[in-house]
Amino acid sequence: MEILKEDFEAKLPLLQKAISQCDFISMDTEMSGLSTAANSYRNPDSLATRYSKVSNSAKEFLVVQLGICCFTWSDKLGAYEAQPFNFPCFPSNDDDAKSGERFFLSQSTSLEFLLKNHFDFNKWIRHGIPYLTRREEEEYIVKKTEKEKALANANQFDIPIDDRNREFITSTIARVKEWLENSTEQSQRELTIPANNAFYRRLVHQLIRTEFKGDLDSTSNAHERTMTLRRMTETIRKEKEDAKIARPPKLNLRRVLDMISEAKKPLIGHNCFLDLMQLSQQFLWDLPFELDDWKRALSLEWKTVIDTKHLATHPLIKQHLDNSGLDLVNMAVQRHPFSTVGPKIVMAENYDRYIIEPVKEIEIPTPHAPGTFITGFVRNDKKPAKSSNAPAGKSDQSGDAGSKAPEVDAASTPATATGAAQSTARAAAPAEPSLKSGNNNAKYHEAGFDAFITGQAYLRFAGFIIKERQRIEDEESEHARKKRRVGSPDGSSTDGDAVSATPGDTTEVKGDERVTEKPTTDTEDLEVEDGEVEETEMEKEAILEKRKRVIMENPTHDFLADEELQEYYNKLHVMRSDLPTMDLAGPDPEPEDRPYSYLLRNVPASIQSSTLFHLFEQYNPYTFSWSDDTTAWLQISKFAPGPPGEESERVPYELKSPPLGRLGEEYVKPFYEAHEMGIDHHAAEIEILTWKQWYDEREARERQQREVARAQRESQASQNQQFRKNALKKPFRAPYTPPVSTPTSDSPVVSAVPILPNNSNNNNNQPEVVAGSKRKHDGEGEQGRE
What we know:
Number of strands: 18
Helix content: 25-40%
Pfam families: CAF1 (PF04857)
Distance between the termini: 53 Å
Region (Disordered): 373-439, 472-540, 705-786
Family: Belongs to the CAF1 family.
Strand order of the largest sheet: 8-7-1-2-3-9
């Protein structure tokens, strides 16, 4: 469901209900850019530096689209109902205070990417929902309060009536009285009169207050230079009184995020570090300077944050994924083995922007869980999806054009197993993604759709981890049970795989005399190993029932309370960082040492990568990556080199470390004396550091920089506080005085004579400039523009 500016307030009750009743919420954003040129990637950053860089980007770019999806468990359906919402958001400044006005950057590649994915920029600007942060909302209320006070004070000083404005006032009063006499409340309800500028519009307001004692209501239209008059009613009077009360604007998309925060529901994203930074800066509060402060502030908004990109690093998940990009994850979770586990998902009623249709009840047996019941989705169209404009890696969104078989995601509707289905050929594996939009295109990179598939990926991953772990435990338990041997007459088992026999011992049971092969059936195990004790009929029925069991109760609690899954909660995947994971709930660990990485400093500009390979050939270099013209990283291979002219056999070997510190004349002398590859004596200045030495230097430098920056902020805050205590007196501002000259050339006043004070000593006959007036002398504006 897409919600625009025009219907935002009407949809708020629906949003409130969906958010308050759901089990968890997934989210996604689209932005006008990702990173500034100053934040370009060179080397992995520390988490504090990465936070600082991303913070700068979050302050420069805009969130252009916000998507959320509420997942609510339905006992009646035995499934999660998905309610996706898509919000285009634009910082409009329609109000007089211009509270929503923003200055922002755009990244050309990001705009091209959005355009290729059918982003409507006209809809974004015309129908985007405005938003304010909490600080901006407070400033809005302050400005509105000050404005009301200024208007109340302005009404205390009436514009004097003189020859310059008497004709306009007389004609206006006559028109208003004629309208009142010849009209009723049912006919000619409004009167429009011309008012060429703010001076005459204020005169009209003054006339309504003084001549008609507030029996009329007046509104101005600066664009059309008119005033509209209406008879005052109780309804209008109440509306105007309410408008004077300073309240936050109702049209504020941040209200949705406030609802999510108040509901205390788990928030799920995919690779959502940048998304959370943008949501914090654009909608909630200014990003703090320190990473730890941001973590604490974020934990107050959302107690549980789950990043599915980090969850995809789970060993049971990682082995089935070639790539953890969201579009590829969406494809993966709709195929084996993820499609056969996890609770089913259905679209809630009236949420048809991303249409999905259930398929016939089927069963697709899996090699490790015979009899498992599964479910499925099918596309809502018969034609292949268009993919000519899709980004790389997303074009393969539909099946073959000639294929008539439905594309199945095995996780939607419970199937009914029959004996005939068991004897027929195995069902085909699920095909490509099943979710389609109403225009026959998967809406990848529309925030609402991406939020939906993010939540779907979480349910598939969590369900697979729990089911796979349970399957492994069941197999181990079953294998241990089958290995029971006949022991003492009371039924206790004996230890060991073999029983030592004595000449008089006749109790040993030989497996080949006990076990007879039987055909495998649905109610019997596939095989009985040598020496195993056969299960009873009750045990067989319990095992079969356990295998056929499907999730019929709300699994949210199991997903959130599972200790193994909790290890992946409140942790964010961070790109371009020493640590790939950020812990939101606690301190981040120190990165592991990298014994195969060395930093080369003071490299002469004449030396290239090929020269460095020759210079350090004895240490088995793998690659060199340049940070700048004089700094490079040396990566030593982890495997022993192969024979000359042959590739390495990838055999681990004992690391031979290059000399640390300054390379020195002694090392480079054999090279430049032999005139090898242009190496000269300047190469002796190359300095070599281990990764740990470089890391400690960087941490010390960044710590010092943060301390200096903190001291500067504290000093600035102290100065601001001192300034507020000893604030200067406001300069005297005289009451408003009407302009001396005619405000506009098309004014009904023909001429005006400057009024000079009696005690004026102005010998040049120039009009006196009155403090606080908005006077503009004739011709002054034109000369200034020239």
